[in-house]
Amino acid sequence: MLLPSLIFIITLILIITQPFKLQIGTIAIVGAIISLVIGTVNIADVFTVTSIVWDATLAFIGIIILSMVLDTIGFFEWCAIKMAKLSGGDGHLMFVYSLLLGSFVSALFANDGAALILTPILLAKMKILKLNTKTIVAFLLAGGFISDSASLPFVFSNLTNIVTANYFHIGFVEYLSNMFIPFIVSVIISIVILWLVLKNDIPKKVDVTLLKNPDDVLKSKPLFYLSWIFLALLLMAYFIGDNYHLPISLFALGGALLFLVIASSMKAIHPWLILKTAPWQIVWFSIGLYIVVYGLKNGGLTDYLSVVLQNLSNQNDLMAILGTGFISAILSAIMNNMPTVMIMDIALADIPNQALAYANIIGCNLGPKMTPFGSLATLLWLHVLASKGVKIGFWEYSKFGLLVTPPILFVVLVSLWIFI
Question: Does the model's pTM come out above 0.90?
């Protein structure tokens, strides 16, 4: 157990710090190779891990490519300006609308899409509105939080969702039917608590006349209108595909590439630039890190967790759901939610209570917000902000995350217990 733990810790530290400008995928693959050479995993484990994560990884790439195309044509900027204009200059209403927009983007384009695409747009608009630094940080902290807390409704809304749904053979419709209410509860309670915590930093009035007309930011109005129809059809395709047990990546990646071709044919984008800048490192990150994590499984960590989770499942359902969710959340905050979701899935495999799989997802989606390194989305979000000149310190972020996450997590887990 000591050796795989050491490899994992070193790999995770290097992923978080990225020394010498090393890419996260490169670091994860090196960690996987070391695990293979030392013997904490074997070739069979590599194939097992690949079979678990390939669908999630390709689906994520597809969602990001689709997001990048929509971002290029002005889709998200149009939504952000429209949101601000609808507030009528009321700062508190704008705060709520920005979180609802973040929820929409996170649900349909994944939490990482919200972090990568929406954050710089909102930051740019807030600077145009001449908001002070405290207000900007308040909006950004709330937006960063909602990107994960709203990533619950669809299988494709978060990598953790896809991995767990595939691992437990949960279909698209079944997943949505069980997680829709917790999603709604998560969005509502998140907005309420975030507003209560940050309300003193939100201005009463904002001069929205400083913003452009929403339609002026669109590069192609026909493609913009077509994109809404395309998204509706793509969502329908997920439901149809579920009846035939087709992989989620078939529609996520296939739909993205189809829309890329359509946008290219309408001369609205440069397709090779989109493909070149897509986060292909995520492929190597997912496979590499999970191979390293599988060494922890071979070392006995999942056996220990299985005993703890089995004892929880022998209690009443509420205690089992709360216990599982908070264990996932704490582990995610400490060791990142990507390795946590796999370790917990393996530990839950022999426990005949599927509600705990959903509790694991909720814990892995919300729990990471307690620390800056809890999720890939947060790391990407902080990187985007730093590149724009906005730096949020470790303790500033952690104090905020530790304050708002536990009560929101508790309420969402209780809603899962009530409605599942």
Answer: yes
